[in-house]
Amino acid sequence: MLFQSYQRALFDIAYRMLGTASDAEDIVQDTFADVQYAGLNPDVKDPKAYLCKIVYNKCKDHLRTAAKMRQSYAGPWLPEPLLTDSLPENYLRQESLTTAYLLLLQELSETERAVFILREAAEFHYAEIAVVVEKTESNCRKIYRRAKRKLEDRGNSQLEDPSRFKPLVEQFVRALQTGDLETLMDVLSDDVVFAADSGGQVPGSLIPVRKAQRVAQFLMKTSGMVPEGMRTDFEQVNGQSGLVLSRGERILYVFTFRFRNDRIEAIYATANPDKLVYIGRQWWSKPEHNHLNCR
User: Fold this and answer.
1) Rounded (to 5) percent helix, strand, coil in the chain
2) What's the N-to-C CA distance of the chain in angstroms?
């Protein structure tokens, strides 16, 4: 009963904390395994806050280990992408699922991140947040304001209707497929940045590419190397219009974007196979792909 009631919310909180869906899933499963083994303390008045506290502590432990590993990570690090078209509308505020937003959250301290996520995304009361992070309500208010100010200073952008930017993404894809450099330049912001997360496992740029001319030329060059039989699907990824590129039964790339003033301001390409496992499971569980799993 606890699992059914809180599993989704706990996963979304852990995912925002970590930026990795597979790790968030493991932490939530470990949390319920611990509770099932030890039993829920009858003195616990708020099971949701109690479970969130366990998840938060596990996330802190994981983040400390991940921070050391990330120091030697090959190239840009991006959050794991996930499909969000099946989530209920406004579920835990999908704007905080965008790649750009998740990258900003990574710049906050563990406590700032937890307080901000619980308040902004999960809409917890400060009394509940205080239980989770073991701070006073007054301190939680201060931490939240400080975190919010940091995100605003770093250019936090709010999510608009995901369907609004789909035509822009479609135009982006057509330009690449037809080799139309002029149209590609039209959809890119002058200061656009392209970042690819390969984890050193897939050939590609290990440093971000910046400025419209360079990004457009880079994309045109690499699009000519696309393997034969590559399929491109438009999907809602991390709450916004994105792309899933697959070949056969493998997802090879996932593209997400940041938009501003009806232009593409940032392009995030995830190619690290380890970061495509979770979205791969989501992808092949969709009804339109079920027949492929039965072969």
Assistant:
1) 55, 15, 30
2) 35
DSSP 8-state secondary structure symbol assigned to residue 191? E
Q: Which amino acid is at 183?
A: T
Enumerate the β-bridge partners of residue 83. 237
* Range 180-183, long-range pairs (CB < 8 A, 24+ positions): 181/216, 181/217, 181/220
Domains of the chain: 2-72+108-153 (1.20.140.160), 162-293 (3.10.450.50)
Q: Where are the beta strands (DSSP E) in 198-249?
A: 209-210, 231-237, 240-247
Nearest CA-CA partner of 235 in 175, 273, 289, 187: 289
The model's pTM:
0.89
Q: 122 is written with which tokens?
A: 């999960």
Query: pLDDT (tens digit, 0 to 9) for every residue of the chain, 295 residues total?
Result: 676 788 999 999 999 999 999 999 999 999 999 888 766 666 777 888 889 999 999 999 999 999 888 888 999 999 999 999 876 554 445 567 899 999 999 999 999 999 999 998 888 999 999 999 999 999 999 999 999 999 888 765 445 566 688 899 999 999 999 999 999 999 999 999 999 999 999 887 899 999 999 999 999 998 877 777 889 999 999 988 999 999 988 999 999 999 988 999 999 999 999 999 999 999 988 877 654 443 3
